[in-house]
Amino acid sequence: MQEQDSRTTAYTTLAAGPDVRHELEIKRSRFITVLRRAGTEDDARDLVASLRREFHDARHHCSAFIIGPDRDVQRSSDDGEPSGTAGIPMLEALAKRETMPGVADLSDVSAVVVRYFGGVLLGTGGLVRAYSESVSSALAAVSMVRRSRLRICSTAVPPGSAGRLENDLRAAGFVMGETSYGGRDTVLRVALPDEPASIEAAAERLRSLTAGTAMLTPEGTEWVDVLLP
């Protein structure tokens, strides 16, 4: 989990996993939408390249992506469709997708729509609706996570009690980070909101769970995936 410079402390993205695929048929044209989580422009462009190889006989491979916690990288391509009828509607479907009521913050996502022309012209308005609907329908089928910049805090405990303590912390609702196993101690890590009150509350809970023997040490911040309820 790499730390990124950003004004934003949380945004929504696709859950880690395989690409999501969704297909629509509109007036005999096939619109195959593929969504992928993409943390860089290279990741997003790799999706386009791979689908060009897979669907090499398709007429169009239109694309759009949004990258970064602040959503400051946004690109789209009509790939031969009339200007403004494919890439921009796809990008707007991503950018305007509400991940919570009144909140549109989806990022680190790449969308490609592969079109097989069915012989019937859709017209400018028809193409805009088709590409927008293709992406929106695919988004309705994905699992999403809240990606938050959290403060990582660690505690070193005897190996014999580490498993029980980790379970107790999870049961208390804490987001656990990476565990390190050493010869004398096991280091547990907890991901917390980066604010003093949250860190102190976690430290107090840790002391109560260990009869005051374990201390919580703040480390750096990391971007952490938190499953949406």
- Fourth CATH level, the homologous superfamily of the largest domain: Impact, N-terminal domain
For this structure, what is the CATH class of the largest domain?
A: Alpha Beta
Instruction: From the 3D structure, determine the CATH topology of the largest domain.
Output: Ribosomal Protein S5, domain 2
Let me know the number of strands.
11
- The helical percent reads 25-40%
Shape: elongated
Largest beta-sheet details: 6 strands, antiparallel
Q: SSE order, as H and E?
A: EEEHEEHEHEHEEEHE
Q: Kindly report the average pLDDT value.
A: 93
Which class do the helix and strand fractions yield? Answer: alpha+beta
At CATH level 2, the architecture of the largest domain is: 2-Layer Sandwich
Segments where pLDDT lies below 50 for 5+ residues? none
CA-based gyration radius: 22 Å
Number of domains: 2
The number of helical runs is 5
* Beta-strand percentage range: 25-35%
N/C terminus separation: 22 Å
